[in-house]
TrEMBL record:
<dbReference type="Pfam" id="PF00535">
    <property type="entry name" value="Glycos_transf_2"/>
</dbReference>
<dbReference type="InterPro" id="IPR029044">
    <property type="entry name" value="Nucleotide-diphossugar_trans"/>
</dbReference>
<keyword id="KW-0328">Glycosyltransferase</keyword>
<dbReference type="Pfam" id="PF13692">
    <property type="entry name" value="Glyco_trans_1_4"/>
</dbReference>
<protein>
    <submittedName>
        <fullName>Glycosyltransferase</fullName>
        <ecNumber>2.4.-.-</ecNumber>
    </submittedName>
</protein>
<dbReference type="InterPro" id="IPR001173">
    <property type="entry name" value="Glyco_trans_2-like"/>
</dbReference>
<feature type="domain" description="Glycosyltransferase 2-like">
    <location>
        <begin position="348"/>
        <end position="469"/>
    </location>
</feature>
<dbReference type="GO" id="GO:0016757">
    <property type="term" value="F:glycosyltransferase activity"/>
</dbReference>
<keyword id="KW-0808">Transferase</keyword>
């Protein structure tokens, strides 16, 4: 954004004569004041004392009511008006209007800092909002949604933003009752409080919302039918004092700032926490359709319709529509002249068609659009009587094999196999459409996994429900598509796994293997069980058949068959299948609904782990979550099936979830702790072991595991402490003078470890923590630290600048927030005059919206970077990493990560002790009781190239020797062996 012209800006600090004359026309007419000069003189001498506002962007009466201290200063003569106070000093800390909240606006725009505001000539966030944010349809408070304003038909010009137009209106908005946000319902408000309508008619207020936000008794009025001041205050004793002391205007203000994010109940009949468990609500809130669960609840009246039943019932309609769309699309495709000419094909496609010319053209167009590389396309015309007879005249490069009659899918595919030239062969139905990336993902799977012989797709029917997510073979030879009629986005359908077989509608097979097996077995002609038999023969040949959910195909299903489906044919071929594959079938489960999860994978000997964490362990979260992510990845590298289950349901968008974990991890994103008991019981006997991350989760899970004792082996629980917390908590209390300093660490440890008795094995992050556990009566302890790969090449001393702090800020009480506050106030000022002013201090990492780091940005040396998609480039451009932690537990992942990137470290002595490194050799170690020594160490390491390179070499050696991937896998494998 560029700086704006101060002569043309929208300005809250000027007197608007035109607006003032219209706003206060009654007074001015009575006094016969007409000229602009006279009007301005009147405001200066009398209007301000009458609590008149000087312009539409500042509300004098509200300002004095909101800030009684300002009114008191005016009575003492320090200021003539609230407007004068705001212009001189209030703009830095106060809000100017009941429809704008500076804190709200800046929190939702973390890229706006004091430095960026100053660079653009803005005095505060309100300046920025009026001149930029409002034109971008940004919201400046909970109570003003620009889109809601525009939907109401109130906009009259494009020269002003929605907010400016709204506050400039000198007549009531839409008869007092136009809704401006989800959080305030004006119609309900006026019906509930009829006395307010009388006051509006008397022009005491400009709107119902104005009354709600400016009345003198805010706790006596509810904003909508879903929130009760009386209820919220009665059940939240921790908030009552803050409201009474005027820290919050009313209970609704606290709810909007904090309670809604904590999912507190706004009304006795509104279970916001339960409502937010609904996956549809989670998805719509996470992608920004609604600002939070409460707004979603209001918008839907607390009811979320499940349209799955409608989708299932509407399949016959969707099929007809799909067929009609193919017909409509056909002339366009004929004009495009699809081209499949090739020299050396990446793969071969075999399509069998019996009529359905328009549908076949659509399938070919989808294939061409999905993959632009060379491919061989063989179309078998199986006795067609429509346009299929001349399809090669409309599509270039097709190889067509024709038969006078309908020979069916099986024999047609075998006839085409003789002509296959590509290294992979795709069996593709002509009644489907490929979703983006389908072919690229399928080819990548086979190219990257030599032992995978075939890969199949997630098949979605035209009504939006699953046809299958891989398929199951039962011991009697019967088969079923896994998750048929379920939603395609359910967690169980969205991880890669080995399966018995995948549908021939989309099946990519290695051509050499396919030819060796002779294609489909003709004993199954004309149809049924041919692809099942082929996949089992692929298994028997020593190869895997894989279901890959990144390959998504919309399947019309049964649209091309020229045969009458008959139970007798299915029964006949099932018997043939059973006789041919008796050895394979003896390993399979007997059919039962409760065994679907167990039967969904063909890897019957694969061990299965239920991995439970506070929340889904994204790497960007730090604070032990990165380590958990590494543990999950390593378990999968060792060949385990891992189900990741969070204690708290994730709110991140689906693309975040999918990209954060290995594709073979089953990530349960739509459930949390209250559903865990039912989840485990529904999979009774399925898991070989349960891995509980973090000691405090053992407390949460103890009652659940006891209720599920018959569903999980008593010898199958591992508790990963991640870090022993008691010493850290004790350090913090002593440091801050909180709690009972006489309470011993031993007492705190006893409390912390009270549920570790459940574990067959306990995991510590370092030897120090392991010794503490053993000393407290737990001999069954193993150690698993961090995994890092020392980068062989990274920028040297000359190519680097600046100082880096990297860590997640989850809450105001966290070690990272504490250390950052200490460093910025005690150490950073000591660098002034010793390091050039242009050397920046970068703060990088996840920042919880509840944590306000804005005060840091007032220091021109600070660069608040926040979360980044890739930390590698950030590490590579900095010269020093600082870790001034004053209380900690376990081992901070960031130390090893910085070292792996070749970035020398200045850390607190606490951290140096935890990682077990040599001070002055592997890192510079300084006590956090001596800010000057910390600053001296930074300057010395920053300026001394020889020292810098020596530290770098030693820390890289530490990472290579102690934290390699192979060593990590060996340690983990030993822990998982019972």
């Amino acid at each position: 954004m560029t700086a704006y012209d101060k002569n043309k800006k929208l300005d809250w600090s000027v007197f608007d004569c035109v607006w003032y004359k219209e706003k206060y026309s009654d007074v001015l007419s009575f006094l016969q004041i007409e000229t602009d000069e006279a009007v301005q003189e009147f405001y200066k001498n009398d209007g301000a004392s009458l609590k008149h506002s000087p312009n539409p962007y500042f509300d004098e009466d509200w300002y004095l009511s909101k800030y009684p201290a300002v009114a008191e200063q005016i009575s003492w003569g320090e200021f003539r008006s609230g407007f004068e106070h705001y212009c001189q000093k209030g703009f830095a800390s106060h809000n100017p209007h009941w429809l704008f909240d500076e804190e709200f606006y800046l929190k939702r725009h973390p890229d706006i800092s004091d430095v960026s505001l100053a660079e653009q000539g803005f005095r505060n966030g309100y300046d920025h909002y009026l001149n930029i944010g409002d034109f971008q349809y940004s919201s400046g408070s909970w109570f003003f949604d620009p889109n809601a304003y525009l939907k109401g038909g109130q906009a009259t010009t494009t020269e002003l933003g929605p907010y400016s137009q709204c506050v400039r209106a000198t007549v009531p908005v839409a008869g007092y009752g136009h809704r401006l946000s989800w959080y305030f319902d004006p119609e309900w408000y006026l019906e509930t409080y009829p006395e307010v309508r009388k006051e509006l008619d008397a022009k005491e207020w400009t709107s119902a919302l104005h009354h709600y936000l400016a009345n003198k008794t805010p706790t006596l009025f509810n904003p909508n039918p879903y929130f009760s001041e009386e209820f919220y205050g009665s059940v939240n004793n921790d908030v009552s004092g803050a409201v009474e002391s005027k820290h919050f205007r009313n209970f609704f203000e606290h709810f909007l700032k904090y309670g809604v994010h904590e999912l507190r109940k706004p009304l006795s009949t509104v279970d916001l926490e339960g409502y937010f468990r609904n996956p549809a609500v989670q998805q719509e809130v996470s992608r920004g359709d609604y600002p939070d669960a409460f707004a979603h609840y209001i918008a839907h009246g607390g009811k979320v319709e499940d349209d799955a039943a409608f989708q299932k019932e509407s399949e016959h309609v969707s099929k007809k529509i799909y067929h009609e769309m193919c017909r409509i699309r056909m002339p366009l495709l004929l004009n495009q002249e699809l081209d499949f000419t090739y020299e050396y094909p990446d793969f071969t496609v075999i399509i069998i068609a019996h009529n359905h010319f328009a549908m076949t053209l659509s399938a070919l167009a989808s294939l061409r659009a999905n993959y632009n590389g060379p491919m061989q396309v063989i179309v078998v015309d199986s006795g067609s009587t429509d346009g299929m007879r001349t399809i090669e005249q409309h599509v270039r490069g097709l190889e067509v094999i024709r038969f006078p009659g309908n020979i069916g899918f099986l024999l047609g595919c075998n006839a085409a196999l003789e002509k296959v030239r590509g290294p992979f062969t795709l069996y593709l139905n002509n009644d489907l459409e490929l979703m983006p990336g389908a072919m690229g993902n399928a080819l990548a799977r086979l190219r990257s996994e030599p032992q995978t012989g075939a890969v199949g797709a997630k098949l979605v029917r035209t009504n939006g429900m699953l046809q299958e997510a891989g398929s199951i073979v039962w011991r009697d030879g019967s088969v079923c598509g896994y998750l048929r009629d379920k939603r395609p986005d359910v967690p169980e359908a969205n991880f890669v796994r080995s399966v018995d077989f995948c549908s021939g509608a989309f099946l990519l097979v290695r051509s050499d293997l396919l030819k060796k097996l002779g294609g489909f077995d003709t004993d199954y002609a004309p149809a049924y069980f041919e692809e099942t038999d082929l996949c089992i023969r692929i298994h028997e040949a020593g190869f895997d058949v894989v279901y890959d959910p990144s390959i998504v195909v919309i399947h019309y299903e049964y649209g091309t068959s020229g045969f009458i489906s008959g139970a007798s044919m299915i029964a006949r071929n099932q018997e043939i299948f059973r006789k041919k594959h008796g050895a394979y079938l003896r390993q399979k489960n007997l059919f039962h609904e409760r065994l679907l999860v167990r039967a969904r994978s063909s890897a019957t000997r694969q061990k299965r782990i239920l991995f439970i964490e506070d929340r889904l362990p994204y790497r960007f979260l730090g604070s032990g979550f990165t380590r958990s992510n590494d543990v999950i990845r390593s378990m999968i590298d060792l060949g385990y099936h891992v189900t990741v289950y969070p204690v708290y349901r994730p709110t991140e968008p689906m693309e975040e979830i999918c990209s954060s974990f290995p594709d073979r991890a089953e990530v349960i994103w739509d459930r949390e702790l209250p559903e865990l008991e039912d989840f485990i019981k529904s999979r009774a006997g399925y898991y070989d072991l349960v891995w509980i991350a973090r000691t405090h989760n053992a407390d949460r899970l103890a009652p659940v595991l006891m209720q599920c004792a018959d569903a999980i082996s008593s010898r199958a629980v591992i508790i990963d402490t991640e870090a022993v917390a008691a010493p850290r908590e004790h350090q913090k209390r002593v440091l801050r003078g909180e709690g009972d300093p006489e309470q011993s660490v031993e007492e705190m440890l006893t409390h912390e470890f009270r549920h570790l008795f459940m574990a067959e094995k306990i995991v510590a992050v370092n030897k120090k923590d392991a010794e503490i556990l053993k000393e407290n009566g737990f001999p069954n302890v193993g150690v698993l630290g961090h995994m890092q790969k020392a980068l062989p090449h990274s920028p040297g001393w000359d190519a680097r600048r600046d100082i880096l702090f990297l860590g997640a800020m989850h809450d105001i009480d966290s070690p990272n927030v504490d250390s950052l506050a200490w460093f910025s106030s005690q150490v950073l000022p000591l660098l002034d005059g010793r390091l050039p002013d242009d050397i920046k201090f970068t703060v990088c990492g996840y920042i919880n919206p509840k944590v306000d780091l804005k005060p840091l940005t007032k220091n021109p040396r600070v660069n608040l970077l926040g979360r980044v998609p890739d930390v590698g480039p950030v590490y590579d451009r900095h010269r020093i990493f600082v870790a001034p932690t004053r209380f900690a537990a376990g081992i901070p992942y960031k130390i090893h990560e910085a070292a792996a990137h070749g970035l020398p470290i200045v850390a607190s002595s606490i951290l140096c002790e935890q990682v077990g490194w040599t001070p002055g050799e592997d890192m510079l170690s300084v006590s956090t009781t001596d800010p000057q020594a910390f600053a001296d160490a930074i300057v010395r390491l920053y300026e001394d190239k020889v020292l810098w390179e020596s530290i770098r070499e030693h820390e890289l050696a530490r990472v290579r020797d102690d934290h390699s991937h192979q060593k990590y896998l060996e340690q983990l494998k030993a822990l998982l062996s019972f």
